[in-house]
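Instructor's aside before we start: the two examples that follow are unrelated to each other. I chose them only because their records fit on one page, so don't look for a connection. First example below.
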Amino acid sequence: MYDFIVNLKARSGYGKNIWRLIEHELKRQNVIYQKHITHYEYHAIKIAKQILNTHKSISHIVVVGGDGTMNEVINGISSFKNVVLGYIPTGSSNDLAKGLGIPSDPIKALNLALHPTRYSYYDQGNVTLHTKMKSRKYVVSCGIGYDACVCKEALNSKLKLFFNHLGLGKLTYAAIALKQLLRFQPFNGELMVDGTKRIILHNIYMISGMIHKTEGGGLIIAPDADPSDQQVSVCVVSDIKKYMFFFILPSLLTSKQKYFKGLRRFNCRTLEIHLEKSQIVHTDGEFTGKEKELSLGCTKEKLRMIR
């Protein structure tokens, strides 16, 4: 049996239409399944826990939603020993699906989940907010600063609703990105890389810890990211004047990126972040809180996913 965790509100309610198509196909193929509809924030965490408590054998969970829905599901799964995850992307950005090569067509993605050609294992990132004494796993990216501000505003933006209804969800992030950049105040801090290398930073705009290459619907933040290497691919923008960020942002849309002063990338096992002031943090586009003392890394256990 398959357990489907479904976010009908994904892509400003468009997820409801997609689920109708999926459910019609499930019935046509006589698939035995149970659906679990999310109704509020963090509900998918609770549902995932309930599914695992119910099943004694291997659980086949298929997530129907965006990257944020998947984020909640993995945070509700304490061990993947008896879990196989499928994914049908219905969100606005769907960076996880892009990274895994999962079709954007919901019926094709469904058939992949029902008739997999293979299972693959992928890293789970983990961020610890030390002041708040809490941790959260993530599948695509964790960001501090500018990109987190964009994600936070996009969650409840009327622009997102408008553009999603036009089928232009990616424009939401572009519009909000420009607005946030105009009013964003950079900050200072330092990094400790793998417990040995100290980097002092000024005028920080963003610090991103990536598992996959892209976030925000296709921004190539970490071109060399490998989602199975047990490393966090870090992208930092700092020590620049604000006008330079106007040049850096568009360059992230192309795979042939130029060198820019103030843009640095590296891979590491662990990253400690110490900031002068608390900043907004996101995990997979979801608001995670404000923090000034953080650490990033990967969990020892990998996700087992259908591809």
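Example two begins here.
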Amino acid sequence: MKTFFDYIEPSGKLDNGKITKREKIYQGMNGKYVERFYIENGQSYIFKPLTNTDQLGKEIWAQERILLNLPPFYPKILAHSTSNDPEKSWIILEDMGPLLHVFEENTLAEVVKLMVQWHSFPVGELAEIPVKGPKPGIGHISKAVIKKKEETLELLKGYYISEDLLHKFFTKLEKTVFNDEMVLSHGDLHLGNYAKTKTSIVVLDWEHVHLNYRHWDLYHLIDMSHPVFPKNPSSELREDILNLYCKLADQQGAAIEQESFFKEYFLFSSVFSIWMILLISSDLLMENSKWPKNQLHSQLNESLISLAQCLNKI
């Protein structure tokens, strides 16, 4: 009887002689492709080579220590390599079928229902859980934005962002220490990492799971821009999702004071969006940026819209 290892070459690549069909899904940061492959009986699976060397073994750890204790809103890892060589590292996941990445209130509401569950996970039992994700923490981001205050004011003046609101923002930011409550965070919950299937909502790519603020996942869900997965956040949608989160978290026993939670979110979102705007603006000046210029301009515009909406609520 064949096992999944029979479909993988010793080099850690799919064996074209053993599979019947393969389809590229997306390309990772290191150039390797995540693919759907089919075997003799017509069954399909997802082949995911290691796309980021720093994440070796982390997705497997996340499933074994965390995800198996939660409802099945994620694709299960069915097999994985045993090599410590990043070039030969891979996992095979169940195929959840076609995924639709859509930014709409119903989808966000379903993701929030799941988010509250993983935010309620008892992290005290996980001594080895990472405390850092793929991006700098909000403390580092805040310091970086404050350090570039004059550059930020000059840059945003060209995009008709209110200078009065920006000065109010910086005054507030310089006095703020964000709530220190840490929860289990997905870590990289942009629109490409959650999707609709024919029957449910799935949350993908758990290799960046770590401890972080509640606002981290919420910002990525609502306001984090991405060059490949566009979204159109609005003040109404944002407040609806935050209201739902507070209601559901309260049902899980979280002591959230809604007014201060909202105010902190608007500040958190503003500083994160400014940091993103600075990064995107820098990428636009590069001749050989990873992303096409038209996608970066769209991402910049989304970040500016989110920033303007949140600044008005500080």
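The chain has two domains: 4-94, 105-311.
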